[in-house]
Write a structure and sequence with these properties.
Elements: E1 7-11, E2 18-20, E3 23-24, E4 32-33, E5 41-45, H1 53-65, E6 74-75, E7 80-81, H2 84-88
Antiparallel strand pairs: 1-5, 2-4, 2-5, 3-7, 6-7
């Protein structure tokens, strides 16, 4: 299962559960925030029967802290970005 199977993932999604910084420094790209910015990637969970938005928020904090986005970031040394398709294609493993 992929993130796109349980959540809407779009740039500029105003009423999202949380946002992922799409463009910034190597350290800031991929960080998670609750504040809307039209440049951020919004994540809105629609399958709350199998995944809670707050849990996913903390999972993305962990993903960022582990440096996941560093390998995927593209751009110059001072300004990098991550692609929407890379966020949508994050594989989720559900345990019963």
């Amino acid at each position: 299962m992929f993130l796109s199977d349980v959540a809407t993932v779009e740039v500029g999604l105003e009423n999202a559960d949380f946002y992922i910084v799409r463009r910034g420094t190597m350290d800031s790209v991929g960080s998670v925030t609750k504040e809307f910015n039209p440049e951020h990637i919004g994540v809105s969970v629609f399958r709350t029967d199998i995944l809670l938005p707050t849990y996913l928020y903390y999972c993305f904090m962990h993903i960022h802290s582990q440096g996941h986005w560093r390998a995927l970031a593209t751009g110059t040394l001072s300004l990098v970005n991550i692609r929407l398709r890379e966020v949508r294609s994050i594989r989720l493993q559900m345990q019963h």
